[in-house]
Specification:
Distance between the termini: 18 Å
Helix content: 25-40%
CATH topology of the largest domain: Quinone Oxidoreductase, Chain A, domain 1
Bound molecules: NADP nicotinamide-adenine-dinucleotide phosphate
Oligomer: single chain
Length: 355
């Protein structure tokens, strides 16, 4: 079967290969999924460059350790290449290993995958808990992107920030799929949004969604503009996935007791963070990484969260524009296309035929 893999980490796409590999067999508690469709997310590029491994290396519980783990209890080792890429997608369960629920066989499922057993393969093998059966009412494209961005945007807005009505929320990279989900959720919750873009092409879609303010940070000083639109008060919440000076300036836009969540590193630059700009307004800064957030949730809470995400999905909150679909063999073009500035939507990989 075909599998998109890297043999070692690299800052470019030169190590991404389409290989012919043996069909994997599901082990105890696992299922094998015949993959159909999968998005190219920024996190897939992180896995190519090794951003996660480099971050895990710095964590205190990995100091001096050969095997890097994403948790201090050392139950979740982080894989090193060679590994198969692809963080999520849509497929059909085609085999169940011993102890996996046989009722999953033949089900259309959203998968939470990722290296070493990624979604960009004709077949992938996962723990039975990492597949989510979906009703036919959820279309293929939304189903293929059902987990990472919907769950993360929901968790940040309603759990980490726990937004209240009649407030302001400021976010960067506002042309992203996740930021558009935040705009829709904010509108449902009575929260006004200030949306930062660097490509003017994103403005019409954001305004059509009901974004209250859109600021192009290439041409306007965001602090002047935030001061103007909030009457000098500042914003209650901020969401940053860019870093660098931009995130530092967003922090300076928070009102007294404001809260910023950091969830991405698109500029690849550390946040510029003058300590007093955080101290004087007593602001809070939180980090968000979906896998870590999920690990911190009491297991009994998860079914309720997934039900709520599914309810919002049915209302169109997580609808995502698809810009282009490439066959798996053209994965290099898909990866390059996903990084073009001003793209209106997601790039997807078509892996197998529709049933
Ligand atoms: N922490 C977590 O668990 C978690 C979970 C889900 C997503 N995320 C993060 O959420 C972010 C958005 O993901 P997505 O899938 O919604 O993205 P996406 O739809 O692929 O869109 C990416 C957006 O980022 C903008 N961008 C890229 N580099 C930038 C830079 N240096 N400065 C400013 N803007 C930049 C692009 O704008 P242009 O068109 O102008 O290039 C584009 O609008 C990513 O950082 C992703 O890693 C994190």
């Amino acid at each position: 079967m075909k599998s998109v893999q890297i043999d070692r980490l690299a800052d470019d796409l030169s190590r991404v290969r389409v290989l012919e590999v043996p069909l994997p067999e599901p082990g105890p508690g696992q299922v094998r999924v015949r993959m159909q469709l999968s998005p190219v997310n920024p996190s897939d590029l992180n896995a190519v460059r090794g951003d996660y491994l480099h971050a895990f290396e710095r964590l205190i519980w990995n100091r001096g350790q050969q095997v890097l783990c994403s948790d201090p209890a050392r139950t979740r080792p982080s894989p090193r290449p060679p590994y198969a890429l692809g963080g999520e997608g849509l497929g059909i369960v085609d085999a169940c290993g011993p102890g996996a629920p046989a009722t999953l066989a033949g089900r259309r499922v959203a998968v939470i995958a990722g290296p070493p057993m990624g979604a960009w393969q004709e077949y992938t093998v996962l723990a039975a808990q990492a597949v989510l059966p979906l009703p036919d009412s959820i279309g293929d494209e939304l189903a293929a992107m059902f987990v990472i961005n919907p769950l993360s945007s929901y968790a940040m807005v309603h759990d980490v920030l726990a937004v209240r009505a009649d407030t302001w929320l400021l976010q960067d990279a506002a042309g992203s799929a996740l930021a558009k989900m935040v705009v829709r959720m904010a509108r449902h919750s009575g929260v006004r949004t200030i949306n930062l873009i660097r490509s003017e092409a994103h403005r019409p879609a954001l305004e059509a969604l009901g974004a209250d303010v859109v600021i192009n940070t290439e041409s306007v000083d965001l602090r002047d503009e935030v001061a103007r639109v909030t009457g000098g008060r500042g914003v209650d919440y901020a969401m940053d996935c860019v870093g660098g000076d931009l995130a530092g300036h967003m922090l300076q836009c928070l009102t007294l007791g404001g809260h910023m969540v950091v969830y991405g590193t698109l500029s690849n630059s550390p946040i510029t963070l003058p300590s007093r700009d955080m101290m004087m307004p007593a602001t809070r800064l939180s980090g968000f990484f979906a896998a870590s957030w999920l690990a911190l949730q009491p297991p009994a809470r998860l079914p309720g969260i997934l039900t709520e995400v599914a309810r919002l999905a049915a209302q169109g909150v997580f609808d995502t524009t698809v810009d282009a679909v490439y066959p798996l063999a053209r994965v290099h073009e898909a990866l390059a296309a996903s990084q073009e500035r001003g793209r209106p939507g997601k790039v997807l990989l078509r892996i197998g035929a529709r049933d």
